[in-house]
Amino acid sequence: MKTLPEVAEVPTQTPARTEFPAPKYRRILGADRSQLLYWSTIVILALLVLAPVVPTLYQSVMDRPLYEEGGLFTTENFTRLFTEGGFGQVALNTLMFAVLTTVMTLLIAVPMAIVVVRTNIPGRKFFGTAMQWPFFISSLILGFGWITMYGPAGFASVQVKRVLGFLPWDLYTIPGMAITEAVALAPIAYVFCANALRNSDASLEGAAQTVGAGPFRILWSVIIPMLRPPMVYSSVLVFSMSIETLSIPLLYGQPVGITVFATFLYKNGLQSIDPDYGILGAASVIILLVTILLVAVQAKLLKDAKRFVSVRGKATRPRLLDLGWIKWLSVAFISVYVVIGALVPILGLVMRSFTKVFTPLQNPLQSLTMGNYQRIFEFPVYMASIRNSLIVAGVGAVLVSVLAVVAVVVAKRSTFRYRKVIEYLALAPQAMPGLIIGIGLFWAFSFLPFNMGSFVQGTIWAIIIGFGLRALPSAFGSISPAVMQIGEELDNAARVNGADWMRMFIRVLAKLLTPAFVAAMVLTFVVMMKEYSPAIFLGSADTNIIGTTMLELWVQGNTGSVAALATIQIAITAAFVGIAGLLMKGKKDA
Fold it and tell me: Is the dihedral of CA 400, 401, 404, 405 positive or negative?
C-alpha cells in the first residue's frame, strides 16, 4: 500500500501589520474639543430656558418691578391675584375654553384619522393632505377669517340671518372660541392618530373579521382602543396649547369681556397704563406651573403606553374597511371641516383683501380694489413688518435647526455624563407659553447688569431668541427619529479609524442628517412665521412683525389691511413649503 510522501511543513510568516499613529486633535484651552462642544451645548440651552423662567419667578415675589432698586420679598402678589385681580373667573373661563377645545378637537380629528387611514372612502390621499392644511395657517389668521365669514356682520352670517331670520351661532362666546381653536388644532391630533394607525399591525382586525365582526364592531372593539395613547397624548397637548393661546380669546373674548389666562396677561401687561408687575409675575407663575404639570402628565402617560403596542414583526398589510353608504357621510364630514372650517374663511379673508367692502348686500366684484395692498406697500412700517418676519423666520430657522441637530446628537449619540439633561432642556420650552417667554425675556433683558439688555431688547435678535425658544422643541422632535435610525456601528467604525467624537459627528452623522436638517428648517420656518405672541413684549415700533402689525391694524378697525397682510403671510408660507417640498421630493429621510 503506497503512502503519500510526507510534505515538509513550511512555516508561514504573517506580514507585520503597519501601525499608524492615531491622529491627534487640537485641544482648546487644554480641554478635549468634544467635551467643549458638550458643555457649550448644555450652557446655551440652560441660558435660553432659564432666561425667561428665573426673572418671572423672581418678579412674582418682589414688591416692585425688577428694574427698581430696594425691592423686598413678599407673597402678597399671589394674595392680591386671587382676591383683587378677579383671577378666579379667569381660571374658570380658561378651564371651560380648554376643555371644550380639547373635546371638539378629538371629535374632529379621531373620526377623520380612522376613516382616512382604515376605510375605503373616495379620495383618501387628498383628504389626508387637506386635513393638515390648517397647520400652516396661524390661529390668528384663521380667527380673522372666521370673523370675516361667520362673525355677527360676516359674509356668511348675513346670508344665513336673511334666510332664517336669526343667526344660529355666536363666535363671541366660549363655545365659539373653542370651535375655532379646535379647527386650528385638529391637524395636530389628526397626525398623531393617523401615524398610530399606519404603524399598527392590521392582523388584529383580520382576526376580528374571521370571527364574523362587521366594520363598526371592528372600529369600536379593535381600532379605537389602539388609539388610546395618541388620543390621550394629543388631548394633553391640545389642552395645554388652549391654555396658552392668545389670538382667538383676544379676537372673540375681549370685545365681550371674556378673559382667559392669556388675555389677562396681555391686558395687565401691555394694555395697562401702569402695569402691576407683581400680579403679572404671580399670574405668569401659576400658568407656568399648570403647563409644566400637563407636560409631566403627558410624559407619564407616554411612559405607560407600551401595553398598547401592536406593531410587531411581519406586520400584515391593512385591509381597508368598507363602511357602505356611510362612507359618503364620512366624506361629507371631512369636506365640511376642510371647506367650511378652513378653506372658506381663508378665501373670504383673501377676498376681503381685494375689496373695499365685503358684504353680501353688495356684489364684491363691484368693489374690487388694490388699495389695501397699495397701503401695505406704500407705508414703510408695514413693509418693515414683512421684512422683519422673513428675517426672523429665515435666520431663526437656520440657528434653531443647527442647535437642535447638535443637541440631538449629543443627547442620543454621545457618552456625555449629562446628555439626558440636554434632552430635557431642549424639550422644556414646550411647557412655556409664548406670552410667558416674552414677558420673562423682557424682564431678563431689563435685569442684566451694566445696561447690557438695552443692546438686545426691542431688536430683531430679541424676537429671534423668543421665537427660537418656542420652535426648539419642534426642531428637536423632528430630528430625533432620524438620528435614532442611524446605526451606531457607523460611529464605532469612525472611532476605530482614529476619529474623535467631533470628527465622527462632522464627517459621518452630519452628512447623513442633511435631509432631516432641511426638513427641520422647513418646519421651524413655518412655526416661526406663524408665531407672534413673544414679540408683543419683545418687539418695538421698528421691529414689528406681521402678527403684531395685524393686531394693531385690527384694533384700529382697518380690516382691509389686516386681510392683505394675512394673505401675504399665507402666500409666503405656501411658497416656501411648496419650494421646499419640490427640493426634498424623493428624499424619504426628509
Answer: negative
Phi/psi at 119 (5° precision): -125, 170
Instruction: Tell me the three cell numbers of residue 259.
Output: 378673559
The grid cell for 100 is 371644550
CA-closest candidate to residue 507, choices 518, 521, 493, 520: 493
Give 10-residue mean pLDDT values along the chain (590 residues): 47 46 52 78 92 89 79 85 79 93 92 82 82 83 91 89 88 94 90 75 56 57 69 83 89 91 82 76 86 75 48 51 76 88 90 86 82 91 94 94 89 84 87 85 80 80 93 87 69 61 68 82 91 88 90 88 92 87 61
Which residues, listed in sequence order, are joined to residue 321 by a DSSP beta bridge?
Answer: 119
DSSP state of 321: B
Cβ count near 50 (within 10 Å): 15
SS3 324: coil
From the number of C-beta atoms within 10 Å of its C-beta (0-12, 13-18, 19+), residue 522 rates as: buried
Distance CA 425, CA 460 (A): 24
- In sequence order, the β-bridge partners of residue 73 are 62
Q: Are 554 and 535 in contact (CB under 8 A)?
A: no
Q: How far apart are CA 117 and CA 321, in angstroms?
A: 10
Closest CA to 456 of 338, 538, 561: 538
In contact, 354 and 368? CB cutoff 8 Å:
yes
DSSP 166-195: S-S--SSSHHHHHHHHHHHHHHHHHHHHHH
β-partners of residue 102 are: none
Query: Do 526 and 572 contact (CB within 8 A), yes or no?
Result: no
3-state secondary structure of 15: coil
Any idea what DSSP says for residue 27? P
Q: How far apart are the first and last CA of the chain?
A: 74
Between CA 49 and CA 432 the distance in angstroms is 9
Q: Which residues pair with 355 in a beta bridge?
A: 368
For 302, residues 6+ apart whose C-beta sits below 8 A from its C-beta are 229, 233
**Helical residues (DSSP H) of 304-362, grouped into ranges:** 326-335, 344-353
Number of CB atoms found within 10 A of residue 155's CB? 20
Alpha carbons 312 and 315: distance in angstroms, whole number: 6
